[in-house]
Automatic annotation (TrEMBL), chain A:
Cofactor binding, note field: Binds 1 FAD per dimer.
Required co-factors: FAD
InterPro entries assigned to the protein according to its UniProt record, in alphabetical order: DHS-like_NAD/FAD-binding_dom (IPR029035), ETF_a/b_N (IPR014730), ETF_a/FixB (IPR001308), ETF_alpha_N (IPR033947), ETF_asu_C (IPR014731), ETF_asu_C_CS (IPR018206), Rossmann-like_a/b/a_fold (IPR014729)
Entry protein name: Electron transfer flavoprotein subunit alpha
Organism: Streptomyces bungoensis
TrEMBL record, chain B:
The family this protein is said to belong to: Belongs to the ETF beta-subunit/FixA family.
Gene Ontology MF term list: electron transfer activity
Keywords, alphabetical: Electron transport, Transport
Subunit structure: Heterodimer of an alpha and a beta subunit.
UniProt organism field: Streptomyces bungoensis
Domain Electron transfer flavoprotein alpha/beta-subunit N-terminal per the UniProt entry, residue ranges: 24-214
Name by which UniProt lists this protein: Electron transfer flavoprotein subunit beta
SMART domains assigned: ETF (SM00893)
Matches recorded under PANTHER family: ELECTRON TRANSFER FLAVOPROTEIN BETA-SUBUNIT (PTHR21294), ELECTRON TRANSFER FLAVOPROTEIN SUBUNIT BETA (PTHR21294:SF8)
GO CC, alphabetical: cytosol
Top-level taxonomic group: Bacteria
Record lineage: Bacteria, Bacillati, Actinomycetota, Actinomycetes, Kitasatosporales
Cofactor(s) listed in the protein's UniProt record: FAD; AMP
Length: 320, 261
């Protein structure tokens, strides 16, 4: 069976969930071969094997942490040359898309970004994308070279599918461009203890209606009662009430959870672009005319300062 | 020595309009009003600030697009850019990101540059890959997705806020930079700026000016193919209740029914 390369997004050996979803999709097309780079690369193997990786190609070098993007492109190109895969799948993070694009150009292949689904087709994998703020769904295919496709988080289920996952060292020689952009400092995000926004099954968001940084504790309390991640509209972020890393929408994160709860958010097109593919959508807004109500499965027209705390209490009571 | 800055800007259909696809499955650019992509205004702004802080600098705005795309150039000129280049050719219709990066790279080389400044993503395609592709083609450092940027003594520095960490980046010019909407509000064109823009030079180039063959670009030259585009069915109308004291409890009941609690 044809091999499919899967680029592994990991933090010091801990594999992030979107990569496991890619393994599920890769198995629809062929045999997943994972590529793990940088510090802790070999530590990813056990998890990847459990989820279907037949092989894990690893390479550790300080360049991956010291220079932007290009060292990873060099390595992925080396992997493509070693394996001659049927496709290359990369998680759709900002960095993932840049890596994938440069790889595609180098190997003379077309690129599809932000796929939300992937199937095998007669002429190669067919990717589903959600475009124009999720008002259209397209099906596309790479028509030249080895398809390079980036896939959004929450596009497939994580499935156990034990495979060999044998670790092999990848031979990489860095290009002249590899050391072009130096990373001179890095401040890791502080963990909030809440799920990762793009990976969470439930997202609870607050917008301008939350009316102040201190009031976001109401949104956080609801999120915690559901084990959810916290999101924010750009209006709330621009006002300085919540960090930009939590922004949902066109210029923030795109989320596709099982449940999205929008509180005090009007539902502007740029916000919808980042949440419209959520399975179930719920909104609390005091304006019955707010466009967010066009999207909801359940909406409450009311003051969030009344509705949200009551909801949180009720959830706590029901959960016991 | 003058710092030559090229800003790449895209003319896009208004996101608040009713965007759709044309019969050949390319983005329909006729039925919805177009404008300078809002995310490229941030690129123009940062380029102007970098130029203002340099001893001597020249800002050129560059777009690839149909006749109407001149509007995007005019807007950037009225914000303060010095001159503009419009790459227009019928054979460009349907060009994908890989092809766009080819045309941009050739045009940037022809124009001459020390620094390229791009937006974080176009508001229609939203791929966010063109700056990385242009850097790859030009063989210069990519310093992308910056929420803060500065240029001094031939070095570009910036802050990139990633998923896992916020990174400080540094590279030597020439380089390709892209900036996010966190980089600082874009200025509004002043009346004086709008008047001045009318006299600023706009050059028009076509594919032959850039030594690019028609087969390398356009819909037929694209390395990807859209096979189908379907409007997402409207979401089925949900239940909407008015809070009369029990709204939170009613919502909890709904969530329990959906097995979220
Ligand atoms: C290029 C570009 C990119 C953008 N990217 C993004 C993006 O990534 N994400 C994003 O979110 N936006 C983005 N925007 C901005 C977007 O257009 C909207 O301005 C923004 O989403 C509005 O945020 P909001 O809904 O919180 O605020 P508003 O539109 O002001 O809505 C606030 C809502 O809260 C309700 N409300 C007020 N008080 C209460 C209360 N006590 N109880 C209940 N409800 C209450 C109001 O009725 C209102 O509907 C972008 C814009 C542009 C031009
Ligand atoms: N047709 C175009 N003309 C000029 N610049 C473009 C064009 N397409 C993309 N760009 C630049 O590349 C950036 C990212 O675009 P994209 O990768 O399409 O999301 C934009 O913000 C622009 O700066």
């Amino acid at each position: 069976m044809a091999e499919v390369l899967v680029y592994v997004d990991h933090v010091d050996g801990a594999v992030r969930k979107p990569t496991l979803e890619l393994l599920t999709l890769a198995r629809r097309i062929g045999e997943p071969v994972a590529v793990a780079l940088g510090n802790g690369a070999a530590d990813t193997a056990a998890t990847l094997a459990e989820h279907g990786a037949v092989k894990v190609l690893t390479h550790e070098a300080s360049e991956y942490a010291e220079y932007l993007v290009v060292p990873k492109v060099d390595a992925l190109q080396a992997a493509v040359e070693a394996v001659s895969p049927a496709a290359v799948l990369v998680p759709s993070s900002a960095e993932g898309k840049e890596i994938a694009a440069r790889l595609a150009l180098r190997i003379g292949s077309g690129i599809i970004t932000d796929a939300v689904d992937l199937e095998a087709g007669d002429e190669g994998p067919v990717a589903t994308q959600s475009v124009f703020a999720a008002s259209f769904t397209t099906k596309s295919r790479v028509s030249k070279g080895t398809p390079v496709i980036t896939v959004k988080p929450n596009s497939a289920a994580v499935e156990a599918a034990p495979a060999a996952g044998s670790v092999e060292a990848l031979d990489v020689s860095f290009s002249a461009q590899a050391t072009g952009t130096k990373i001179t400092g890095r401040t890791p995000r502080e963990s909030t203890g809440r799920p990762e926004l793009t990976e969470a099954a439930i997202v609870v968001s607050g917008g301008r209606g939350v009316n102040g940084a201190e009031n976001f504790s109401i949104i956080e309390a609801l999120a915690d009662s559901l084990g959810a991640a916290v999101g924010a509209s750009r209006a709330a972020v621009d006002a300085g009430w919540y960090p930009h890393t939590n922004q949902v929408g066109q210029t923030g994160k795109s989320v596709s959870p099982q449940l999205y709860i929008a509180n005090g958010i009007s539902g502007a097109i740029q916000h919808r672009a980042g949440m419209q593919t959520s399975k179930t959508i719920v909104a609390v807004n005091k304006d019955a005319e707010a466009p967010i109500f066009d999207l909801v499965d359940y909406g409450v027209v009311g003051d969030l300062f009344d509705v949200v705390p009551q909801l949180t209490e009720e959830i706590k009571t029901r959960k016991g | 020595m003058s710092l030559r800055i090229v800003v790449t800007v895209k003319y896009v259909p208004d996101a608040t309009g009713d965007r759709h696809f044309a019969d050949d499955l390319t983005v329909d650019r006729d039925d919805v009003d177009g404008l300078l992509s809002e995310l490229d205004e941030y690129a123009v702004e940062q380029a102007l600030q970098i130029a203002e802080n340099a001893d001597d600098a020249e800002v050129t705005v560059l777009t690839i697009g149909p006749e109407d795309a001149k509007d995007a150039l005019r807007k950037a000129l009225s914000m303060g850019a010095d001159k503009a280049i419009h790459v227009e050719d019928d054979d460009l219709h349907g060009t994908d990101a890989i092809g766009t990066s080819l045309v941009l790279a050739k045009a940037i080389e022809k124009a001459g540059y020390d620094l390229v400044v791009s937006g974080m993503a176009s508001t229609d395609g939203t791929m966010g890959v063109v700056p990385a592709l242009v850097a790859e083609r030009l063989g210069v450092p990519q310093v992308t997705l910056l929420s803060e940027v500065s240029v001094e003594d031939g070095t570009v520095k910036g802050r990139r806020d990633g998923d896992a960490a916020s990174e400080q980046l540094e590279a030597q010019l020439p380089a390709v930079v892209s900036v996010t909407d966190q980089s600082g509000e874009a200025r509004y064109p002043s009346f004086k700026g709008i008047m001045a823009a009318k006299k600023k030079p706009v050059e028009s180039w076509d594919l032959s000016d850039l030594d690019i063959e028609a087969e390398e670009v356009g819909l037929d030259g694209a390395w990807t193919k859209v096979e189908a585009a379907n409007q997402r069915p409207a979401r089925t109308a949900g239940t909407i209740v008015k809070d009369e004291g029990e709204g939170g409890k009613q919502l909890a009941e709904f969530l329990a029914g959906q097995k979220f609690i």
